[in-house]
Amino acid sequence: xxxxxxxxxxxxxxxxxxxxxxxxxxxxxxxxxxxxxxxxxxxxxxxxxxxxxxxxxxxxxxxxxxxxxxxxxxxxxxxxxxxxxxxxxxxxxxxxxxxxxxxxxxxxxxxxxxxxxxxxxxxxxxxxxxxxxxxxxxxxxxxxxxxxxxxxxxxxxxxxxxxxxxxxxxxxxxxxxxxxxxxxxxxxxxxxxxxxxxxxxxxxxxxxxxxxxxxxxxxxxxxxxxxxxxxxxxxxxxxxxxxxxxxxxxxxxxxx
Length: 256
Hints:
The protein is an all-alpha fold. The protein contains 15 helices and no strands. The N and C termini lie far apart (63 Å).
């Protein structure tokens, strides 16, 4: 621990190759970084463009033993991924960030165990990818949507990320509608609200789809917005009746 702490603190200040040589001795024996200092050194090397460090990060994330002791705001899943995705979209760093994010979205740690508020952070990260590298972001949406059954976190990841892209970027939201939103709602689910509710079991993602329709309308995509409205006008949420805790219907938006 003391050696790696000194190495992290650049005492002595060694070249990246020498740092990796020392780190590699540890990883060959233990495989996973059981020291936070090892994680920090490897992340620093990765952000410096060291492909050995980038490969190590990918391999750690593919390891269930490593993933189970990570949380979204920890070293890896939170900070390093966002840092990689903040780099130039044409670089290996960004490519690795996308690879790691896409891999993480398929794990049970995300699909079933991540808290709902953390899934909101994930959605913002996906939206960032869509804005910075559209093809990579679109692939992420499509890959998540391939699941036979979408968990609550997956539903949120898809539809909140779509709703959170730059609403003033007319070309982007128009393309996103044609490439993903319409194919899902109409081609896959037939524009049938009952089928959509069976697929999107949480009302919040359906609400986000309607909000995306509002953004389309504001950017002049009136027909596209109406296509969304025609589906969700029959949505079961909110209920027509007043809720038990709202007998006078003060929060009943149907009445308003």
